[in-house]
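Technical note accompanying the year-one report. For the benefit of new consortium partners, we illustrate the data format agreed upon in the data management plan: each record pairs a sequence with a structure-token string. No post-processing was applied to the example shown here.
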Amino acid sequence: MPIVRVEMWTGRTQSQKAELARVITDAIVAIAHTTPEATTVIFDDIAKENWAVGGVLASQS
């Protein structure tokens, strides 16, 4: 049972997440030879103030 975690900043629409889930699932099914029903995609929306790159908070850049 593949589980794919997608961590990204908040702000994506439900439509964007639905499309991502479909495309990711299709890729996992094709490459890992599993089924859509066995594939889980989890979205973690993270606020920019909780994300830092190079020691700088994304909310400050």
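Partners are asked to follow this layout when depositing records. The CA atoms of residues 9 and 47 lie 6 Å apart.
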